Amino acid sequence: MINKITTKEEKLIRKGICPDCKKKGFLAGPEGGGSQNFRCANPECGSKFNDMDLFGIERINSPSPSHQPNLMRIVRDYFRKIHAK
Ligand SMILES: [Zn+2]
Question: Is the Cβ–Cβ distance between 5 and 20 less than 8 Å?
């Protein structure tokens, strides 16, 4: 089950901020087919999203297959501008 997110939510995510709990940081999950799954790093939140690059970001409601998150990988991208120095 995948739902579109709002533009406002996407802007927050692009800043590395979870639109649900408003905390910073995401954990990267499986990627493939030009998309990258990631979820909120806050264990009490854990909201999941799918970054489809050109097609934007969608929210994932169903549990994703078990995986080992690639720690901070996607966050590195999102935070590159903010923490450029
Ligand atoms: Zn969150």
Answer: no
- 11-53 tens-digit pLDDT: 999 999 999 999 999 999 888 888 899 999 999 999 999 998 7
**Integer Cα distance of 46 and 28 in angstroms:** 12
Distance 38 CA to ligand 1 centre (A): 11
Tokens read off for 68: 């080992």
Give me ligand 1 centre to Cα 47, in Å: 5
Residue 84 in any domain: the answer is no
Whole-number Å distance, alpha carbon 44 to ligand 1 midpoint, is: 7
Does the residue 36 lie in any domain? yes
